[in-house]
Amino acid sequence: MRVSLYLLFPLFALCVVSRADAQWxxxxxxGGAYAFTVNGQNIYAGxxxxxxxVSTDEGTDWTAIDSGLTSTDVFALAxxxxxxxxxxxxDGMFVSSNSGxxxxxxxxxxxxxxxxxxxxxxxxxxxxxxxxxxxxxxDSGAIWTPxxxxxxxxxxxxxxxxxxxxGTYGGGVVLSSIGDTAWSVMDSGLxxxxVFALAxVGSAVFAGTLGGGMFRSIDAGATWTADDSxxxxxxxxxxxxxxxxxxxxxxxGIFRSTDMGKYWAPVDSLLPVTPxxxxxxSGSNxxxxxxxxxxxxxxxxxxxxxDVAAASGGxxxxxxxxxxxxxxxxxxxxxxxxxxxxxxxxxxxFNILGQQVxxxxxxxxxxxxHEIRFDASGLASGVYFYRLTAEGYVSTRKLVVLx
Length: 403
Hints:
By secondary structure, the chain is mainly beta. The protein is 2% helix and 47% strand.
């Protein structure tokens, strides 16, 4: 019986708008992606209705790899060595042992034909299905064995220490520390149990839900707290952690947290206001997959925030925004600033018309001397302004991009 796509991936009304602060670039290739996997220099995309594609040049060019793949509705991908795994809607699992050149069905023991999530777990492969639980394979997908997680839809995975968290529809977050034999419910404080997305940074775990907002655990899933500050939506489609930056894909664009989930800010400059369903970080780029509006790419240098406290400066006595250096510059420059006490800091770049170009910092930060590298590769030559806001302090300075 055909299952509603709404329950697989919630689809809402699409609206496309245009902005002048372009940073994301739409790529050629498939019309979108519900899943990515990265293997060495290759990035693979699974699309709805178009099968699997591969790019060997950071997304510039894409090639369809579908020999033997009898379903083009690919909702999940994973890779290990030369093996690729593709989970499809209604047509089960496919495995390639030669990096996608040819595919073969791999359903032995897999009782449900809709595979909606995949991950590697040591030498094993985990497959989450729609409504029939979680399966594990120890032999590169030749045989699948059901785990104790049965009669659930399993949408997401995140490694935590030596264990693995799984996000389920209706069952919240479950954790296994010893493979498939001891999955335990981890829902203390988790008040929304339809978990569509997971990501982890060390022992911190982030859970994005359908309609219930975002939750964070700092003790490997033992306890949870709601962390929605800055989010304008309550449904999260995908999560990815890059360093200590966490990105959330939603139906109205992409949000980022730089303070371990306490505050979220949009980072979707010129990305159409359309649902984003998948992320991948490959090389120097972040990739976002949509349904029908293509795959998008943005340099990680534009969206990943790292701030560094000066080793010898102590605690500054006042807020201060320094002049960027070098200035003029091409393509990157360093902006330094100081804050005397813990504050919520925003550092934003505007063009000469007062239109926001990018949000460099939007986070709670500790007192000290901070710096951030601003990459203006996607901007035209000209005069721009950057503004620091912290508590009642506001300061603006001019920078010049010179090609």
